[in-house]
Amino acid sequence: MSLILSCHEKQNKKKVENLNSNWEKLEINTISEKILISKFSDSAEYEQNPNNITFKIVPGNGKTEQEKIVKKKIYFTKSEKDSLAKYIYMSVTEPKFTNVLATDYVGNVMLKYDTGNTKLTCEYNSVGDWSVVSDVTRKIYELISKKAEVSKN
User: Fold this and answer.
1) pTM for the complete prediction?
2) Are the C-beta atoms of residues 24 and 82 closer than 8 Å to each other?
């Protein structure tokens, strides 16, 4: 009788946990929102540009005026930030490849994981509802939509 023990999986799990805790900034961009989360800040930057334009033409006089861009602070607990870091890290290191293709470029999200000297990015474009691309994108959407309005497409 022989017995073989291996700790390879345990080492890989520890490595992922170390990488996951090494982040400084997280970024989530949808078609009309941008959320910047810093590990070292108690608040996150939220910016919403509802029509995804900077200027609009005012009917009647033909002049342009700046579109109202909503900026505010939103707050995540340490646990929520750790979860977002984990989910975004998983998204950028193990992206879900999909054959879904939506018309009119609907369903865009960019997820960014920044360690300070390395940035990992994953983008899903024209996927319809980006929150259902994978279990991980669903978790990201659920977490951030509790704090602020976030477009699914």
Assistant:
1) 0.76
2) no
